[in-house]
Design brief:
Helix content: 25-40%
Mean pLDDT: 76
Number of helices: 17
Distance between the termini: 109 Å
Structural class: alpha/beta
Radius of gyration: 34 Å
Number of strands: 19
Shape: elongated
Low-confidence stretches: 1-6, 33-197
Largest sheet: 7 strands, mixed
Length: 541
């Protein structure tokens, strides 16, 4: 009886223990989520902790092989992928050297071309800082490279800027873990520091140095753009040391010019030269530099869009305009030797009429087409003499009527009024066109010795830099032009002093026909000095 009772108690105890275990397990399973919920981090907080625990290397490499593959493709020259990663320290450097760069513009600049090349690209992911979180945003683009949101709508630049511009611009606390933004490549960083980082740099101060990699194009080629009268390689000239000199600004970084870099920098933009025959030389020089002097059948003649067509009986049109379809870049030149508005006084008799030379009014071409320009380069100078005015039948007008002011009637006074008037007018237009950059180029120097152009003046020197190689002064050698842009947003493209050292670079006595005559100590051989003007211009864009 006693053993039975003990056995019965053992069975009961076993069942009770099993039951308690089951009840305990069920109870814990039922109460787990309720009890532990306050201690479980949300998804956003978990993401933050994960990123904070990972160092830059882990963030870049990760566990995703496709991410590693994508990063390798970014660094290849022909990659069609957008760079994705750079640490905050680099972002601060980029922000400091290019204050106008926004996150959205970085995205557009680093990847717009690559996006447009591949219409069937799968969506890419770019990380943009937002508050204390690192947020993953899917980025898509349409065929033109415009940002799209996930619904397919066009995204304005302000969308990305709104997410991350504050964090990017502050660049605070470099010890924070890496946050993802589109990568700026080494070449792009160099370009930023060379252009915007040296915004206050005086490119007119420096020295000429020998560079065996020059010229940028052959003087035997570029016949598609270069006038033969300026191609000294086609003349009887035999010395070409002047082609091997490069301008090196003091304490300024200046990128080596390449046609590809220029077209990329000028993507979807129009550059307009408006001025005299020296402006035309700069235009032809740039066309040769961009194309490398090679034939380019893909380049379009779009002069008709600007009314630049040869009139009946005319020797040439009033200018030229060419477009590079690969980047939708347009380069044009319009002849306006005085930068004044010219009107026939007697329109019914165009062959013999005089022309009103409105000293205080910009050319009609400029007033009409300025809204289409992104970069404007103006110049005037050598037509400001009595002989030119009389030969062209130009009569000075001010305020719409013939000028009666003796001070203005003086050639210096007339040029001074015109240069100041056009600088003021352009400056007043700039707020209407925020993306427009306007330059007023200083006068290109002449080098006539022992006379003038019509009195036997010569420039026979063939030894480069015989008069010196360095410009050390800070002030411009063209104070009239420098004074005109002072206090305005029009920029000075100062080429006078650096060109003054290069008297051996003129056309001189050489010509295609090799016939004796007056020497040209005004215009330059091409390749030659105007190439340097364009290199400085490129650095300023």
């Amino acid at each position: 009886m006693k053993g039975g009772i003990q056995g019965l108690k053992v069975s009961q105890v076993s069942f009770i223990l099993v039951g308690l275990v089951c009840v305990t397990v069920l109870t814990l399973a039922w109460t787990k989520t309720t009890l532990l919920t306050p201690f479980i981090p949300t998804q956003g907080r978990s993401l933050q902790l994960d990123l904070d625990e990972a160092g830059p290397k882990e963030l870049l490499e990760g566990d995703n092989n496709s991410t590693q593959t994508q990063k390798k493709q970014v660094n290849s020259p022909g990659s069609s992928e957008t760079p994705l990663a750079v640490d905050r320290g680099n972002i601060e450097n980029v922000t400091n050297t290019h204050k106008e760069e926004t996150p959205s513009s970085v995205i557009e600049r680093t990847g717009s071309d690559d996006f447009s090349e591949d219409k069937n690209r799968s969506k890419q992911t770019v990380f943009v800082p937002k508050s204390s979180l690192t947020v993953e945003l899917p980025i898509k683009r349409d065929q033109r490279g415009n940002l799209l949101d996930t619904t397919g709508n066009k995204e304005t630049p302000s969308t990305v800027e709104r997410l991350g511009s504050q964090e990017l611009s502050r660049g605070q606390n470099k010890s924070e873990k890496a946050e993802f933004v589109p990568e700026v490549t080494k070449e792009q960083t160099r370009n930023l520091s060379a252009t915007t980082g040296n915004k206050d740099c005086n490119y007119a101060k420096g020295k000429w140095v020998i560079d065996e990699s020059l010229p940028l194009y052959s003087g035997f080629g570029c016949k598609q753009w270069l006038s033969s009268m300026w191609a000294c390689r086609l003349t009887q000239r035999t010395d070409f040391e002047y082609e091997k000199l490069r301008w090196q600004p003091k304490d300024c970084k200046m990128d080596a010019f390449t046609g590809a870099n220029f077209l990329q920098r000028m993507k979807d933009k129009t550059l307009a030269f408006i001025g005299d025959s020296l402006g035309r030389q700069q235009f032809q020089s740039l066309m040769c530099m961009v194309t490398g002097g090679e034939e380019r059948h893909d380049v379009l003649d779009v002069g008709y869009e600007y009314g630049l067509v040869k009139a009946r009986g005319a020797v040439r049109p009033d200018g030229w305009a060419y477009r590079f379809p690969i980047t939708n870049t347009t380069i044009l030149y319009y002849w306006s030797a005085s930068l004044c508005d010219l009107e026939p006084i007697d329109p019914s008799n165009p062959k013999t009429t005089d022309f009103a030379m409105h000293l205080d009014r910009p050319p009609a071409f400029l007033r009409t087409f300025l809204p289409r320009f992104d970069v404007l380069v103006l110049n005037t100078g050598h037509h400001w003499n009595r002989g030119k005015l009389q030969a062209n039948r130009w009569v000075m007008y001010v305020n719409g009527v013939p000028n009666t002011n003796r001070k203005i009637a003086d050639i210096f006074g007339a040029r001074n009024l015109t240069v100041h008037s056009i600088a003021k007018w352009v400056n007043e237009q700039l707020p209407l066109y925020p993306g427009l950059k306007a330059f007023l180029r200083t006068m290109s120097p002449r080098h006539f010795f022992n006379g003038d152009w019509n009195t036997g003046g010569t420039c026979d020197n063939t030894t480069p830099l015989s008069g010196g190689k360095e410009v050390v002064k800070d002030d411009s050698s063209d104070p009239l032009t420098a004074g005109a842009v002072s206090g305005t947003s029009v920029e000075l493209l100062d080429i006078t002093a650096l060109s003054q050292l290069r008297d051996e670079g003129h056309i001189s006595r050489y010509s295609i026909k090799a016939t004796p005559g007056m020497q040209d100590c005004l215009h330059w051989c091409l390749p030659g000095i105007p190439d340097t003007w364009n290199e400085v211009l490129f650095a300023r864009l």
